[in-house]
Design brief:
The protein has 172 residues and is mostly helical. It has a domain of 105 residues. Helix content is 58%, strand content 0%. Helix 3 runs antiparallel to helix 4, helix 4 crosses helix 6 and helix 5 packs across helix 6. The chain is elongated, with a radius of gyration of 23 Å.
Length: 172
């Protein structure tokens, strides 16, 4: 029995003995340190700029209201994002709303440019005049409250711009 326990104790260590990193990945490929990381860095910078612009446009009272609304959403038993967005939208001045929507439009344009450049580098061509942004088009005017909530939250999970409607590779 002791030999069996010893075997199971040593086996996992031996199984991972050759799992050491093999050095840095190539700097021009899509792996870490390559084009994928460069795209991510550009997207993160564009998003940070839009977030800073949106937050900078708010009055101190509306910054406090944003913090309050986002905090309530995070602990609510059944969070109502649409109601929270309407609360924020109602408190924003026209100038604040315009600045928030302008920040989102600038972010959308930058993200489209980043993705078009990446596709061109990978040999895929441009997305053309395809709109880039949040949600399907044709849903009426954008809501500054919801847009603000999206801009101020840090990305959770993989970036959504990687989930564009690009056909899967052949054979997948």
């Amino acid at each position: 029995m002791a030999a069996l326990v010893a075997a199971f104790t040593i086996l996992p260590a031996g199984a991972f003995a050759d799992a050491t990193p093999q050095g840095p990945p190539p700097q021009n490929g899509p792996g870490p340190g390559g084009m994928g990381q460069q795209i991510r860095a550009q997207a993160d910078q564009a998003r940070a700029t839009a977030r800073t612009s949106a937050l900078g446009a708010l009055t101190p009272a509306n910054r406090d209201r944003l913090a309050q609304v986002m905090g309530q959403l995070s602990i609510a038993q059944t969070p109502d994002v649409n109601a929270a967005a309407k609360t924020l939208d109602a408190s924003l001045s026209p100038k604040e709303s315009k600045a928030i929507l302008d920040a989102q439009s600038a972010l959308d344009a930058q993200m489209k440019q980043i993705m078009d450049q990446a596709q061109a580098q990978m040999g895929g061509g441009s997305q053309g005049n395809r709109p880039f942004g949040h949600g399907p088009s044709g849903q009426g005017p954008p809501d500054a409250g919801l847009t603000l909530m999206r801009l101020v939250m840090p990305p959770i999970g993989p970036p959504q711009f990687f989930h564009m409607s690009v056909p899967p590779p052949p054979g997948s």
